[in-house]
Amino acid sequence: MNTTTKSSMIKPKHQRLVLIVLALVALIGAGMLAAFALSKQAAYFYLPSELAAKPPEAGRAVRLGGMVEKGSIKTQADGVTINFIVRDDKARVPVRFSGITPDLFVEGSGVVAEGRMEGTTFVADNLLAKHDEKYVPREMKNMSTAEAKAVIAETK
Amino acid sequence: MHGFANPARFLRMARWLMPLMLVPGLILAFGALAWGLFMVPPDRLMGQTVRILFIHVPSAWLGMAGWSTIAIASLVELVWRHPLAGIAARAAAVPGAAFTAICLATGSIWARPTWGTWWVWDGRLTSFLILLFLYFGYIALAGAAQRDAAAGEGASRVTAIFGLVGAVNIPIINRSVVWWNSLHQPPSITAGKSSIDAAFLYPLLFAAVGFTLIFGGLVLARMRMLLADIQTEARLRRKAMA
């Protein structure tokens, strides 16, 4: 290859680079769009406001995820059934559950309940605790009241 | 960059660079794990199980870094036809798969006491399991391509193309906890910000650096092994011809 053809033609390696980068951008773009479009279908659970806005048909198995409202956990007389309220910033859903709760199930923290709507109450077959992204030692001096409550709830 | 294209030159460098990465990596990683196991206070909610953090999170980062290495090396192989790039990509596959498997196993063990379940099919967990299957596919494909090449059918680009296409999963793993409601919590460490207390953050960073050095050392070791394989193969073929 002499110098004149070299300057007049695009080098094959540059051509390959442009083609592959274009293909990759298109591919990743398509993948991200597809994944993003799954948004609702790929969601692991409904938020209380979504459940309130579009209630699923009675008896269909769904998952409800949100915060356990502070002071809302009430243990029934039989000792294994609990009632509590799951909420987000827009809606509140009363939940009933019979069984053993996970360690991280405390008031003011996240929960995912598997079950179905019965009237206005969500009857849960299973509870999963949802951890937040914060990692804080127990002995933190500057604990907020919510965190202090959580510590008390756990060490009780 | 083409200075390292000469395998003899690369091998000379890799010979001292490999222990230089493995030894400090092992010291740092095991030091950080001991720090995390014995000296870190329990978490306010998770208690003692927080100690899994120091192996789970670096493994997750390296599982994803492993595929990023494969993708970048595959790009270099396809565009510049760099002779060592394909070997680097193949060398990263097994350590990457190992860290991905460690991440999934420790995550599952951690999920049982904290969430109340071993496994759920949420966005983050599912996309990470897909990453492990992509690694298995890549390792099988690279092995088949190598056998074809050894049989004299010429080098195939299909392994590199698979490495690039599989990279689609990496941003999906990263965004999975942001796009979809998932049981896995959103990221704790985002550009310059961390919601992990310093007591946990420092051993975590030490563990991450240590495991990354181990990963680098393992990739170099596997590259040396793959190059030695190719040399032996070529020598045997010459002997057979003679």
Q: What do these coordinates show?
A:
The complex is a heterodimer of chains A (156) and B (242). Chain A is an alpha+beta fold. Chain A has 2 domains: 36 residues; 108 residues, Beta Barrel (OB fold (Dihydrolipoamide Acetyltransferase, E2P)), CATH 2.40.50.140. Chain A contains 4 helices and 6 strands. In chain A, a hairpin with a 5-residue loop joins strand 2 and strand 3. The radius of gyration of chain A is 26 Å and the shape is elongated. With 242 residues, chain B is an all-alpha fold. Chain B has one domain. Chain B has a two-stranded antiparallel ribbon. In chain B, helix 2 runs antiparallel to helix 3. Chain B is globular and about 70 Å long. Chain B starts with 6 loop residues before the first helix and ends with a helix. The interface between A and B is large, with 48 and 47 residues.
Topology:
The complex is a heterodimer of chains A (156) and B (242).
Chain A: H1 3-8, H2 12-38, H3 48-53, E1 62-68, E2 74-75, E3 81-87, E4 92-98, E5 110-118, E6 121-130, H4 145-155
Parallel strand pairs in A: 4-6
Antiparallel strand pairs in A: 1-3, 1-5, 2-3, 3-4, 5-6
Chain B: H1 7-39, H2 53-80, H3 85-115, H4 123-150, H5 158-165, H6 169-179, E1 189-190, E2 193-194, H7 198-241
Helix and strand sequence of chain A: HHHEEEEEEH
| Count of the domains of chain B | 1
Mean pLDDT across all amino acids of chain A: 80
What is the number of helices of chain B?
A: 7
- What's the overall geometry of chain B? globular
Query: Uncertain spans of chain A, ≥5 residues at pLDDT below 50?
Result: 1-8
Category by helix and strand content of chain A: alpha+beta
Essential attributes:
heterodimer; A: 156 residues; alpha+beta; OB fold (Dihydrolipoamide Acetyltransferase, E2P); 4 helices; elongated; disordered N terminus; B: 242 residues; mainly alpha; 2 strands
